[in-house]
Amino acid sequence: MNFSFTTEQEAFRTEVREFMEKEVPSRWRELGYGIWEEDDESWELTSQWVKKLGQKGWLSLTWPKEFGGQERSHIYQLILDEETARVGTPSGIESMITIGWVCPTIMVFGSPEQKETILPKASKGELIFCLGYSEPGAGSDLASVTTTAVEEGDEFILNGQKVWTTIAHRADYCWLVARTDLDAPKHKGLSMFIVDMKTPGIKINPLTNILGFHSFNEVFFDNVRIPRKNLVGQKNLGWYQLAMALDHERSGVGSPAAMDRMLHELIRYCKTTRRDGKFLADDPSVRKRIARLAVEKDVLRMICYRVTSVQEKGGVPNYEASTAKVFTTELMDRFANTVLDILGPYGQLDRNSRLAPFNGLFVRQFLHSPSSVGGGTSEIQRNIIAMRGLGLPRG
Hints:
Layout: H1 7-23, H2 26-31, H3 40-55, H4 74-87, H5 93-109, H6 112-123, E1 129-132, E2 148-152, E3 155-162, E4 173-179, E5 190-196, E6 202-208, E7 214-227, E8 231-232, H7 238-249, H8 255-272, E9 274-275, E10 278-279, H9 284-312, H10 319-343, H11 361-368, H12 378-389
Parallel strand pairs: 1-4
Antiparallel strand pairs: 2-3, 3-7, 4-5, 5-8, 6-7, 9-10
Helix pairs in contact: 1-4, 4-8, 5-6, 5-7, 8-9, 8-10, 9-10, 10-11, 10-12
């Protein structure tokens, strides 16, 4: 396999890198945002940044030109994702959900009107989706959702509850799965909808996470009426659309570059910080643990390149995306735990302390890592790899 990039692709990488280094807001760097966090200031910074990328056409590099895209190959998207993650830009979860997960699925299953309404604005960073997936009784077993959408004339009436709905309080639309046939087997009675979050009957309650940020929500739908035209694709075939969206969600190719950035910061810290009279970098146990992280980070990069290879050939990564998801999730957890062990007690200090290493980045990563069940737990990913990748029977 040839892992080199063409002259044109390397020129694009240089263009992106120079733009990122110049344009990332200084305030973002001052705040030390390293993982996605939610408060009013970070939201404003990320919203402005996403619109700036939209103006350059970089939110929709691979999209058809009719929807605001540039029709570039997925290799260019890989390069953009790598450089964005390497620099640590304000691009947040809102662009990942909207641009990376929902819009590609709308391109495949959406009606002409849905495509014309959603895609051009999304490509400019002018609208945001949240995901209406999980419910109190439907997480890993997502096909068990009980939120209903009952057809009545030219409308569907929604009733039910969603939970862990990230940025529901900020979003313009919800990409929602609901049950439209109560008598069908659970995978065959679901449909996907585009729901305007300003529709009467929607109530949003905040859920504050362990970091103290309000990003999650529980959302209640009480006789919410939405037009039939907001049904995506065919009624009762929503599971297949949902599965495609999840495949896009699980294939984050920017993760290795983000780890590369954090790893270099850790190495620099260990070279300049003494403990018991010696630099941390001279400790054999520290060197061994950092080396292991470096190897695993490069393994993850190869896994993500494989995902891009599938996309480049016109496919949708399935078990390949699950491979990337489970490896990313567990490596980020090991990464955070390893760094906090190396940092010692100082690693527990958050950014409100002047003594906090890396402005508290790694303690926040440590606290954030349990929320990585989004997109499916590691157990679910391993089942997908076993059945769809290895041809093993359902357990």
